[in-house]
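Justification of computing resources. Each target in the renewal requires a structure prediction run like the one illustrated here; the chain below, 508 residues long, is used simply to show the kind of job we budget for.
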Amino acid sequence: MKSRAVAECVFVAILNAFAFEAIPASQEQYVRLSLQECRIRALQNNLSFRVKRLEPLISEARLKAALAPFDPAFTASFTGSRTQQPNSLVFDPSTGTYISQSVPAQNSLGTRLGISKAFSFGTNASINLNNSWSKGSGSSNYGSNVSLSVSQPLLRGFGRDANEFGIRIARANRETSMKQIVADASAAVQKVESAYWDLVSARENLRVAQMSHQYAQQLLERSRARAETGAQALRDVIQAEAGVATAYQGIISAEARVRDAEDTLRRLTNIAAMEDGWSFGIVPTDTTHIDSGTPSFDSLFAAALENNPAVFQAAQAVETSKFTLKYRYNGLLPTLDASTEVVLRDGDRTAARSMDDLPTAAYPSWTLGLRFSVPLGNRQSEASYREAIIAVRTAELELQDARQAVQADVRSALRRVETSRQQIAAAQETKRLRESTLENEQERLRLGLSTNYDVLQVERDVADARRAYVEARVEHEKALLALDVATGLLLRKRNIGVEMDGSELTSR
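Resulting structure tokens:
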């Protein structure tokens, strides 16, 4: 018996050394952040999202490049030449011999000014002003003319579908990239909000662990006081001290979870880039709330079809594939091109009046031509056209799949909201009953009808119920968040807009 008492005393001393070790007062600096501040930081400072915000600028540049073939072109040229021929031999009948006779050099100058432009229906037009001067053995000659040339494809290459294909694809890509920015912004907000509620949950769980530790300390103090008067056995004191140790372990685990949640939020908001960004703690100022009700499924699904980025991108892919199909069909047609040229010449060969006849069209001339060609077989164009038909069908099926996926996501998110709302009510009732049971067990302990072990077990059940209630409320926030993501209304509900302004994308 004596050895057992000594062993119990040693065990008590070990537990005292652990259970009553003072939890050091935190010297840590804190920053208080609201949920809206975290959203803004995530959109403005998150490095990954800042990289994605530059993608629409690339699409805008590609659109300008696609428009470039339709820009008018101005041309100007100047040519000069001098030709010296060898001396010619001329027969002299009076002498009956050949005489060498020099040939005057030929000098010429020419200028050309013109403007050409391509049009969306395949038309190519150019107008040129030509001037020339030449001088040889006789007097100088001047010549001027104005020419207008027009060519027009009548089959292959005719129409906007054939000539604006690149522009339409570039515009579709620009709209898709802008919509993708909205999707990326929604994803960034979703991540930061989820991380924010994880931190709220971690800090609430830390508070629950601290309450359990405080209760275990109070139970230990009462047990020691009763043990000194002989009203309780030493075994009850040991059980109380074990409860303090267990509660302290809960605090350690809860604090580690808080630090992990803080680090995640630091990275998403780029607080880590600030000076001493890793050293101070983060205290969330927003608290969970319970949504009173949600709209009907039909209204939410209609909103999702209109705003969900995945549906928009799938619909855009259908339009793009239809553009491609029209373009490939045009490639099956034979080539039939019409061309014409009208030239107005001046009749006066003097320098002073070399352009007088151009306004009156005194000496017009024109040419008209048709060119027809058809490839034999044209297997490459046929293969491309069949491929485009399959691409349209594929895009349409993918659009149907995207709509069904969004429908499933909305149904699942709506069901999750309803389930979380019910879970909150159930967890709240469980917490109330557990706390009532704890009060009853405390009264039984006071009357000597219970033990510290039983009370600590009930108190752990209370702590579990409190944590479950916290998790239920946080899960409700995440369920509402998932519903906003599924419907594509996440940014709109939070008054967040993403737009392109000049060379920068701004958030408002």
